[in-house]
Amino acid sequence: MFAAFAVVGFAAAYIGPAGVTFAEANAQEPAVTLYASSVGDAQTRAADLDAEPAEAEGFDRGGYSVHVEEPEPVVVAEPASSSSSAWSPPFVNPDPGSAQAVAYDMVKARGWGDGEFACLVALWNKESGWRVNAYNAGSGAYGIPQALPGSKMASAGADWETNAGTQISWGLGYIGGRYGTPCGAWGHSQSVGWY
User: Fold this and answer.
1) Dihedral of the CA atoms 27, 33, 38, 39 (nearest 10)?
2) Taking the CB of the first residue and of the last residue of the chain, which one, N or C, has fewer CB atoms within 10 A?
3) For the chain, what is the total number of helices (H) and then of strands (E)?
4) Smallest Cα–Cα separation from 153: which of 140, 167, 135?
């Protein structure tokens, strides 16, 4: 008997507070959203759209002025002129086994010197960072030489998507045919932003 009375007491205590949530809304007051209540507090000002714009009169915020002194230009001594007035990248001996080492051997095989290799390094550092899987989502260019589309490199080998040697071989052929040398391609890239 006591157990039945306890169950009824627990049920009433459990359902009682939940009954409050089922109470009907007061029909006398309209519903107000948070947005509506915040709009009611907003400041508004009517404006004549056909009127000429006018300066605000008597509006002073206690302004301030700023004075900026022009820095004195730094005089830099010009280096002794070489055969070219444009900057040329320095030669860096590549790590054995790297993509750059493969490219160095191919550049030498074409009869180009270390200066041409330095231009090639600078060009492909800019284009792809020498990554075989470098992909430009904006243009669709792919690989170390950023061939557009990448599938053009299939003419140098079926493994064009993953083989640095295949990509480099295609890229050097493209550079030789279009610009003559890597420094020619680098110069074009420097002047217009692409090669």
Assistant:
1) -90
2) N
3) 6, 0
4) 167
**Residue 82 pLDDT more than 50?**
no
Nearest to 132 by CA among 112, 103, 94: 103
Nearest-angstrom CA–CA distance, 120 and 143: 14
Q: In the numeric block, which tokens belong to residue 115?
A: 């200066």
Cis peptide before 149 (omega within 30 of 0): yes
pLDDT in tens, 86-109: 656 566 565 556 899 999 999 999
| Rounded Cα distance, 120 and 78, in Å | 26
The span from the CA of 37 to the CA of 49, in Å, is 28
Q: Which two tokens stand for residue 160?
A: 């064009």
| Interval 160-182: pLDDT, tens | 998 999 999 999 999 999 999 99
Q: Is 173 exposed, middle or buried (0-12, 13-18, 19+ CB in 10 A)?
A: middle
* CA triple 185-188-189, angle to 5 deg: 85
